[in-house]
Amino acid sequence: MAGGGLVTSPPELPAAGRRRIHPPGPAAAGRPRRWRAAARPVQLRRQAGYLGLYLTFCPAMRLLLLLPGFLLLAAPAARAQAPAAAESEAVKQTITRFFEGMRRGDSTVVRSTLAPGAVLHTITTRTGVQVGTEKVSAFLKAVGTSHPEVYDERIRFEQVLVDAQLASVWTPYQFYVGTKFSHCGYNSFQLVKLAAGWRIVHIIDTRRKDGCQ
């Protein structure tokens, strides 16, 4: 070249010695994505394994995870128990009113708790086991007739069973004439829910003087 300068050019490499650099094609560009996609399930399995170990050695966390399910199951049961409790209370109120009428000597109150055709039975054991029937009219007359002493039957609700319009109630009792103890036993009530509310359709009781608390 003019000016005496020495200009050198890089030597040409033989074709066999050249290293060709290819731009990243679709296959090369996709390789990192495939690697990440393949690694993701591994990471998820690893995380699931850690979670399983954590739950295994942490009972409190297991309870916290199960608690929402328990609450969902308990909610319908709680809603179902509310009406049942209300019906049981209404049944007990009818029986309580029956005995309040007896104590007050008010046959009208007692009659209001009885269903049409109500039956009264008593089991006696003086001469073998016998079932006596008392007419409702005679019972109401005895309650409503003036008497100097209060007929005080003290009961305790031991069991109240309700299904739809039927109720069965089991009550131990102690009967007092005024302040004097007379006898004790158990009452079994059968009630039916009519349009006017719960009414007594059957009472059967036992009576004894021994073994009373």
Pick out its properties.
213 residues, alpha+beta, Nuclear Transport Factor 2, Chain: A, 2 domains, seven-stranded mixed β-sheet, 4 helices, 43% helix, 30% strand, elongated, disordered N terminus
Topology, element by element:
Elements: H1 26-56, H2 59-104, H3 107-112, E1 114-124, E2 130-134, H4 136-144, E3 151-155, E4 159-163, E5 166-177, E6 180-194, E7 197-206
Task: Tell me what the structure shows.
Residues 1-36 are annotated as: Disordered. InterPro entries: FrzH/put_lumazine-bd, NTF2-like_dom_sf. It comes from Hymenobacter persicinus. The protein has helices at residues 26-56, 59-104, 107-112, 136-144, and strands at 114-124, 130-134, 151-155, 159-163, 166-177, 180-194, 197-206. The protein is α+β, with helices and mostly antiparallel strands and 213 residues long. It has two domains: 31-81, no CATH class; 94-206, Nuclear Transport Factor 2, Chain: A. Strands 1, 2, 3, 4, 5, 6 and 7 form a seven-stranded mixed β-sheet that branches.
Quick take:
The chain has 213 residues and is α+β, with helices and mostly antiparallel strands. It has helices at 26-56, 59-104, 107-112, 136-144; strands at 114-124, 130-134, 151-155, 159-163, 166-177, 180-194, 197-206. The protein has two domains: 31-81, no CATH class; 94-206, Nuclear Transport Factor 2, Chain: A, CATH 3.10.450.
